Amino acid sequence: MPALTVDNLTKSYGQTLALSELSFEVEEGEVFGFLGPNGAGKSTTINVVLDFIRPTAGQVEVLGMNAQTHSRDIRARTGVLPEGVETYDRLTAREHLEFAIESKGSMDDPETLLERVGLLDAIDRKAGGYSKGMSQRLMLAMALVGEPDLLILDEPSTGLDPNGAREMREIVREENDRGATVFFSSHVMEQVEAVCDRVGILRDGEMVAVDSVEGLRDSVSEGETLRVTVDRIDDDALQAVRSLPDVSNAAVDGENPPQLVVQVEGSKTAVLGELEERGIEIEDFSTTEASLDEVFQTYTASREVQAQ
Amino acid sequence: MSTETAGGSAPTSPSSSINLESVRAIAKKDFKDSFRSWVFWGLSIFFFTLLVVLTGLLSYFDEVFFGVSAAEAGVTTELLVVAASFVTRLVIPLIALVLGWKAISGERESGSIKVLLSLPHSRKDVILGKLIGRSAVLSVSLIVGFVFAAVVVAALIGSFDVVDYVGLLAMSILYGIAYTSLAVSISSLTRSTTIAGAALFGVFLLFYVVWNAIIEAIDLLMAFDYISGVPYTVETDQGTIELERMPDWAYFIESIDPGYAYNNALSVATSAAESELGVAIEEIMFDGSVPFFLQDWFSFVVLLAWIVVPLAIALYRFDRVDL
């Protein structure tokens, strides 16, 4: 049974489509990285999973239960680190944890949890005086209460320094070893690749790729990144390049002059030929072995191109 | 509550049920949070000062005008209740509205409601927990203020009547909860503390200004014969006098004002009752059968309705919105 099933999920706000027929599954016991730039719809998806918002269409099942009708049962077995959330200024870390422990009816010890996230020394200080990183650690500790079967971490590295981010990944691994499924959203590839079994890349409310980290790496090592500096670019040309057989993705980077970033698995000349055929002047081009990060860039870069 | 029929795509499930443990946990956390701020102690000191100063003033004027000490003269708890209720009638709503203002809209605006609702609480639990937490802040600060003031008041007043004093306290708590319910409910309807603030200011104006203006307007319209009043006769030494009173519905409007209900409820709970003259006039005006909404017990129904009705609307609607 999957830990999370998102089935044809659509969410619109008036005319704006935040999610468009999104479908994917997270297997039980895996660490799933939910990757996408800001505004891609990651938080919207998580908000539906937790029943903070209601879908326009489609279904979400969490731990085998309907996300809307059994939200309380789901949240009893889920630990959540919400995105960019404020703590309660006048309550201490201990009181925050006591509240979560009481709410979940668990037998956890606030000190043990705060020690795990490295906040034990601030246990009796009011959260109002915490730095962003400390608040984030506190929220993580609250998410760990009650040994949840599913951990949902929305941009957990926000406000953490590299050391903190590493400790956070360490906790994700420990929780996963314990048997928890971890659903982890981020807009930075390097944070998920180190810890995730599989990665889903979201762009403009649609899943553009779901694969294991190895799978993504393989798809990259076969290909190359072609950077072409051109005098101008328009939507038609971009679409034409994208539809070339050897091109897995293409995006525009920069404006003056625009650069076309293309993932190619075969002939680069086809790309250059296509551009020249359209009367676009090529000023320069280079190729590099693509990094995982660049795959992400090309997957997630905005589709819209400003016509010049 | 899980059997409630839902409109639209709202959940009809255990998720929208009420769990008393959750309500308690949220109320406790909310109370703790307010307790830590200056609000709680500030209110306690305010109520203490109010009672002590009023008692002091009453004693002072008694001495000035009658040349006797309060203990010997007629400064009674009853008089204190009347004097205090003039102030509390106006001030308690203000305090309750401010206390409830950001209860939910503030958490929605900052996103911290996601902390509450990431835990296994329902949205109904959150509204009820918040209402209980904020009501507790107001009620406990009233109790603390009243209890400490009692020592001073009892010393100043010869005939300290505990029943009257507790009656004033109890009715003030009930009145405060009614306005807290109104405030928390309105707070749950919006994600913006600005809109919630504007709406609560509207409530404030409604009962402080508009409500009285409505009654004035009805009086005026009656004087110009736009509304026909109800005639009644009074027997006097000089014979029978024909008079006119407002129609029943106008009295009904007047009676559902929470402040009006508070005053009437006080007259039941304390000996600061409506004057016998007032009762007699009502008897005459309504030809011996005073309608139910002008009877004192109805004021409790009004106060309870001001707790329950806004709460019911909030509980229903909050389950159906995107946070």
What does this entry show, briefly?
The complex is a heterodimer of chains A (308) and B (323). Chain A is of the alpha/beta class and 308 residues long. Chain A has helices at 42-49, 71-76, 93-104, 110-116, 132-143, 162-178, 189-193, 213-222, 235-242, 269-277, 292-300; strands at residues 4-13, 16-26, 31-35, 57-62, 65-66, 78-81, 150-154, 181-186, 198-203, 206-212, 224-230, 247-253, 259-264, 282-289.
The general outline of chain B is globular
Low-confidence runs of at least 5 consecutive residues of chain A? 302-308
Biggest sheet descriptor of chain A: 6 strands, mixed
Q: Main β-sheet of chain B: number of strands, strand sense, barrel status?
A: 2 strands, antiparallel
Secondary structural class of chain B: mainly alpha
**CATH fold-type name of the largest domain in chain A:** Rossmann fold
* Oligomer state of the chains in this structure: heterodimer
Strand content of chain B: under 5%
Give the largest interface.
A-B, 37 and 30 residues
Order of strands side by side in the largest beta sheet of chain A? Answer: 6-7-8-3-9-10
Tell me what the structure shows.
The complex is a heterodimer of chains A (308) and B (323). Chain A is an alpha/beta fold and 308 residues long. Chain A has helices at residues 42-49, 71-76, 93-104, 110-116, 132-143, 162-178, 189-193, 213-222, 235-242, 269-277, 292-300; strands at residues 4-13, 16-26, 31-35, 57-62, 65-66, 78-81, 150-154, 181-186, 198-203, 206-212, 224-230, 247-253, 259-264, 282-289. Chain A has 2 domains: 4-216, Rossmann fold, CATH 3.40.50.300; 223-300, Alpha-Beta Plaits, CATH 3.30.70. Chain A has 11 helices and 14 strands. In chain A, the strands form 3 sheets. Chain A has a 6-stranded mixed β-sheet, with helices on both faces. Chain A has a 4-stranded antiparallel β-sheet with strand order 2-1-4-5. Chain A is elongated, with a radius of gyration of 22 Å. In chain A, 45% of the residues are buried. Mean pLDDT of chain A is 87; it is low at 302-308. The longest helix of chain B is centred in the middle third of the chain and has 34 residues, at 123-156. Chain B starts with 19 loop residues before the first helix and ends in a 5-residue tail after the last helix. In chain B, a hairpin with a 2-residue loop joins strand 1 and strand 2 (239-245). Chain B has 2 domains: 14-194 and 305-318, no CATH class; 213-299, no CATH class. Chain B has helices at 20-36, 38-66, 77-101, 105-110, 113-118, 123-156, 162-188, 193-223, 248-255, 258-269, 276-285, 296-318; strands at 230-236, 239-245. Chains A and B meet through helix 2, strand 6, helix 3 and helix 5 of A and helix 1 and helix 5 of B.
